[in-house]
TrEMBL record:
Residues 104-356 form the PPM-type phosphatase domain. This is protein-serine/threonine phosphatase. GO terms for biological process: brain development; digestive tract development; heart development; liver development; negative regulation of apoptotic process; pancreas development. Residues 47-67 are annotated as: Disordered. It comes from Cynoglossus semilaevis. Its main location: mitochondrion. Its EC number is 3.1.3.16. Pfam families: PP2C. It comes from the Eukaryota. Gene3D superfamilies: PPM-type phosphatase domain. One of its GO terms (cellular component) is mitochondrial matrix. It is found in: Mitochondrion matrix. Belongs to the PP2C family.
Length: 382
């Protein structure tokens, strides 16, 4: 649909247009006298969504299967969650963009076998056109994760008012939050907090189409595109050659624990984090890696943010497949958390699932699960 067509819709509709408000216009000849000056009338026929029943044999059922033509056939999207269209964004980008409702977002956080849950997460509408999603996995105490949960969004919101580049906004926000946390811990009477740290994986969705992700540590962001897991983040661990070299150049060292996992100075399993100020001079930094991607709602089913309580035990494609079998993002979030617990995770496990236009489209994705599955293939770095 062209931007001109969308503009015409805007003049007769509010900011959101439901699918049933879109019509297909056709010019049909209507003879008044035989073979003399045929007149034309304008006929409006509603386009039916996949959820509506149509009689077989119509032009909406070209293969006579009894199933109506999906929205994909019209070049839009095939969505099992009926959301209105964001008209301003659709006009701006020249394509139909569905509204992502926070009420549809699924999330869950389980304590696992730990004494307390140091994971934190947040889902909110930060501005009129930007949605905010974040997971924080605290370690060495909850102070750093608590601070990020309370203040990260505010830092980002202040920066968005001055800067339009969301990747730059997130990079600055991470560093400013880290700096503010350092001052807060020095002022606070809780001296042990100096060893507290947290991973941070933050996603911003602007205009329902521009997705920007920033991350430090080993929490992850993943997009399900055409039924396949597309990783948006890369873990910051000492196993990465570039990360290990920075640690060594800064005077730090790498050791391996009894499970064969590398640690910075024998203490920290990641090379980037917010907090962990006792390792700042050893190469551990708070600067995130960022990624920007344009969504294609006809192919993109959902965004997933997870902490390593899930990542350690389930690989990205496995998470994608399990979610694809669920009817609702909230049900999917609960199922993933419980699945990780059944597979033996001991850590806190947190997940956020944000549905997009192709939610439910890939239910037939190959998925076979077994409690006797190989844990090697589902390890931390899968």
């Amino acid at each position: 649909m062209s931007a001109a067509c969308l503009a015409r819709l805007a003049r007769c509709s509010g900011p959101y247009v439901g699918r049933h408000g879109i019509f297909q216009t056709a010019v049909v000849p209507h003879s008044v006298q035989k073979d003399i000056n045929p007149q034309f009338t304008i006929v409006q026929r509603p386009i039916y969504s996949p959820s509506e029943q149509r009689q077989s044999g119509t032009r909406f059922d070209p293969d006579s299967s009894g199933h109506p033509t999906t929205w994909d056939s019209f070049g839009i999207w095939d969505n099992r969650i009926d959301e209105p269209i964001l008209l301003p964004s659709s006009i701006r980008y020249g394509k139909l963009i569905p509204k992502v409702s926070l009420s549809r977002v699924g999330h869950a956080s389980l304590i696992g076998q730990r004494k307390e849950n140091e994971d934190r997460f947040q889902v909110s509408e930060m501005t009129d056109n930007i949605l905010y999603f974040a997971v924080f996995d605290g370690h060495g105490g909850p102070e750093a994760a608590d601070y990020c949960e309370k203040y990260m969004e505010a830092f980002i919101k202040d920066l968005v008012a001055k800067e339009s580049n969301l990747e730059l906004v997130l990079s600055k926000a991470f560093l400013e939050v880290d700096k503010a946390l350092s001052k807060n811990l020095n002022i606070s009477s809780d001296v042990p907090g100096i060893t507290a740290g947290t991973t941070a994986t933050v996603a911003l969705l602007r205009d329902g189409i521009e997705l920007v992700v920033a991350s430090v540590g080993d929490s992850r962001a993943m997009l399900c595109r055409k039924g396949k897991a597309l990783k948006l983040t890369v873990d910051h661990t000492p196993e990465r050659k570039d990360e290990k070299e920075r640690i060594k150049r800064s005077g730090g060292f790498i050791t391996w624990n009894s499970l064969g996992q590398p640690n910075v100075n024998g203490r920290l399993a990641m090379t980037r984090s917010i907090g962990d100020f006792d390792l700042r001079n050893m190469g551990v930094i708070a600067e995130p890696e960022t990624k920007r991607i344009s969504l294609h709602h006809v192919h993109d089913a959902f965004l997933v943010l997870t902490t390593d309580g899930i990542n350690f035990i389930m690989n990205s494609q496995e998470i994608c497949n399990v979610i694809n079998q669920c009817n609702d993002p909230r049900e999917a979030a609960q199922r993933i958390s419980e699945q990780a617990a059944q597979y033996g995770t001991e850590d806190n496990s947190t997940i956020i699932i944000v549905p997009f236009g192709a939610w439910g489209k890939f239910k037939n994705s190959d998925s076979s699960f077994s409690f006797s599955r190989s844990f090697v293939s589902s390890g931390r770095f899968a």
